[in-house]
Amino acid sequence: MKNLIKNLISGFLSIFIFLAPKNRAVILMYHSVGRNEIPSTVSPKNFAKQMAYLKEKQYQVISLANLADILEKKQPWPTKAVVLSFDDGYADNFIFAWPILWQYNFPATIFLTAGTIGGEKIKKTGERLPMLAWPEIEKMQKSGLVDFQPHTQSHPRLSEISQAEAQKEITESQAVIKEHLGGEAQFFAYPYGVYNQSIIDILKANGFIAALTVSRGLVKQESQLFELPRMAVSLKTSLAQFKSKLNFGF
């Protein structure tokens, strides 16, 4: 029933798409793109439809670094800007999402839980999902399309552990990515969207320039770089709901 109501509202909003706010961007948040029934997963079929829609309707899929520059330097906004982000680093991102990103030349950022690289993650459902390994990560990174950034070592709720533990989780995951991929690891996604000012201070002190939350909404010029909202795309996200997320942050 709840999903039906969302579909009805989304369908209604699509009639008034011309009222969508200007000078904004949407950051889409994905996790697994695979054939499982985990709520945060998107099926390969639906992911393909969503990316085809972005291409067909001429959304400008830009990198997270590009969006950060726009906000920091107050640059002109691209029309219908979209940023693609993936949390945790599931192996199915390489198997199913990567070929479609390559097909459309869409940039994306994958936030890696560094301690699970090459291993697996046990979900609340009991399912075991394999995680990306370094050869897959390196292949995507070398393409220039996919950027990899830290998502801590073990995916804790950062504001619920000591500040010393939080700093270790952040800096060690940052160091792992720098060591294997080179360059700078300057973007971060808060596990579970949990953070506080102390966590932001740790990020700033270690050279990060922006961080992503799980709070819903569109990114606007007044958005704070360390509290950027995202729109989650999940198993039950219909195409109508996908459209309303893009245009209204609903």
Automatic annotation (TrEMBL):
Gene Ontology BP annotations: carbohydrate metabolic process
Gene Ontology cellular component annotations, sorted alphabetically: extracellular region
Compartments in which it is found: Secreted
InterPro entries: Glyco_hydro/deAcase_b/a-brl, NODB_dom, Polysacch_Deacetylase
Keywords from the named record: Signal
Protein's UniProt keywords contain Signal: yes
Gene Ontology MF: a single term: hydrolase activity, acting on carbon-nitrogen (but not peptide) bonds
Every NodB homology domain range: 80-250
Pfam families according to UniProt: Polysacc_deac_1
Official protein name in the record: NodB homology domain-containing protein
Annotated source species: bacterium (Candidatus Gribaldobacteria) CG10_big_fil_rev_8_21_14_0_10_41_12
Upper classification of the organism: Bacteria, Candidatus Gribaldobacteria
